[in-house]
Amino acid sequence: MPAEGALRGTLSSVTVTFMVVPQWQGSGSSRAMRLVEGARSIQTDLPTSRTRAIEIPLEAGDDQGSGVARLSSLQIVRDNQLHELRQISSVDPDAWALTIGGDCAVELAAVTHVLSVEADVAVLWFDAHGDLHTPETSPSGAFHGMVVRTLLGEGNPTLLPETALPPDRLVMVGTRALDDAEAAFVDSAGITVLPPDASPQSLLDAVAASGATSVYIHIDLDVLDPAEISGVGFPEPFGITAVALVELITAAKQRFRLVGAGITEFAPADAGQILDDQPTILRLIGALTRDAS
């Protein structure tokens, strides 16, 4: 497929840079290495002139006794991403990046950067899972299950953002597979969790209640119902439909300023899953990047 073809004519008038981060080291899935192929398959349909690819270490990495698997590689990728994100903002303060993973851990740098430059941002976390573990509670040590808790200011000290995300600026949508420790934290922190069938108005009300004027939108593809997408490592039943997800994205963009986004966890098992899932993924990219009307 032509690199400039699939998204031509849909891009926002605000400069959007596509940042492809084929990181797999944060994943605990048996299909983790397929995340590399997933990111690269999406990249083939992105406009070359607006796309940057982040270098990923060849080695798995070491946990350094931290309880975070492959921590050393995660630190390298985080630093590489932050360097590129800061460069983008220095050239055009109104520009924003759409991060293409890779595992959910690629959102560490993306959201860390947004928190450093945007005072009134809420994070909309479309994900079947909470990603709210710490090294102490995680059953796997995989960082993609800890990234939200880290952004909230709890976790491995070498990964914490300088500016933490306040819990009342986090809205989780379609989250339906919380471990007991995560569910307890959601209750104690007062985090808003909307069900997969949440209406656009309920999403807008939740963001408005936070006092935010801008949003960062994270999409783990497993937020979608398994009938909608097959190339994910941790599918969960009773998810959001692609049509409903596009409606939620569109509503959020019409009401609030979009300052960044991410699409993660595409781990196709084979070429057939790439062909099956690519149209849905491109539809989500289009919803995020075209001008709201």
From TrEMBL:
Belongs to the arginase family. GO terms for cellular component: cytosol. The keyword Metal-binding applies. The keyword Hydrolase applies. Keywords: Hydrolase, Manganese, Metal-binding. It comes from the Bacteria. This is Arginase. Transmembrane segments: none annotated. InterPro entries: Ureohydrolase, Ureohydrolase_dom_sf.
